[in-house]
Amino acid sequence: MKVFKFGGASVKDAAGVKNLSSIVHHQHGQLVVVVSAMGKTTNLLETLCNAYFHKDPKVASIMKELKSFHLAIVDSLFPLNDEVYKHLEELFTNLENILSSESSLCYDYEYDRIICFGELISTTIISDYLKMEGIDNQFIDIRKYLKTDQNYRNANIDLELSGQLCREAFDFNTAPVFVTQGFIAGTRTNQTTTLGREGSDYTAALLANLLNAEDVTIWKDVPGVMNADPKEYDKAQVISRMSYKEAIELSHFGAKVIHPKTIKPIQNKQIPLYVRSFLHPESTGTVIQEIDEHLKLPPIYINKANQCLLTLTPRDFSFIAEEKLSHIFAILAQYKLKLNLMQNSAISFSFCIDCNSAVFNTFLEQLQEEFEVRYNQNVKLITIRHYNDEIIREIIGDSPTLVEQRSRTTAQFVLRNHI
Ligand code: ADP
Ligand code: ASP
Ligand code: MG
Description:
single chain; about 425 residues; alpha/beta; 8-stranded mixed beta sheet; 17 strands; about 35% helix; binds adenosine-5'-diphosphate; binds aspartic acid; binds magnesium ion
């Protein structure tokens, strides 16, 4: 059994759905197809959720946009009397019922029960389209089988319970192909949860782990994992083989091509992960697997934008020692802020975090009670794996760096954004 994952870019229009169907058609044998919301639907649903939560009258027009985007795709794929219209109408009604009821006070809970419609709609369309094309498949509402805690918007999976439920649900004696949603899940009491933005890669990896898949393929708009984002670096090249360790480091440092949580579930079961182009399905792309020998990789360059660099100095001049550091870490954890780089001296501690404007001011005020705080917002963190002097000269040049750090394999630079 194999797992295929298709992201939003691959199903952004009717041609994308047809292309998905052709890729699935050429695959023989048992298959789980995991799909994200179409195009930028999740962003639109975020706007819808905000409008609903803040009682903004824009709710109606956003809902209209959501419907017309999907109906335009459906109109060009199906005959007018197809069952798909009934299936979609049901989903739109369910969403409208939520929008016309009073919201709870918990934003994250409301977010998850609204945002899930992107994936529910896309998988409904795709499952019905594959059926029309003669590809026998079963639609699965993954919220019933992938179980999480109640940490809305970034829920944690209950692997044992999900394993039992998924192995029962994905019974290949009943169908050769299953179509299901990435990114969304459910609690034991059937409340909808999500796994973090861009989390569909992670769902594919989880299902592969729980169902003991042979391999996982994530179909992207790039030819594989490259040594830089091709949108930023025109000399980027595909890396044909990569170890799990390299892949987890790259995604952690911010290479957006794979969600950072994807590697652990597949590494734990030694399942290979293929990253391939849905535009050129004949190409082999990248394989990520256990690799024992030393692979010589080219320098890999990652640009993590929208960072904030802070430097803390204790007001009473006490050393930045273990207790101080653990106190700072506790504050970071309290605000769910992700630390991307750190450096300390006798009485100063500098670190880079993802900018999160929603909590930044309160976070800052809390730090200022004990520390003198200097900070730069909107800086970028450049990471170069397997660096050499030539690539550092090419990427960084003479740009003045705010912080610089080098280990044996990785060089990192914090730069002002306008450079
Ligand atoms: P999905 O359609 O699955 O959501 P994403 O858009 O999240 O796919 O990821 C694909 C994008 O990742 C590419 O369009 C590319 O711009 C970006 N990217 C960033 N770093 C890399 C890299 N090292 N190799 C390939 N693509 C990269
Ligand atoms: N649709 C979700 C998002 O845009 C999940 C995903 O695409 O992976 O974040
Ligand atoms: Mg994505």
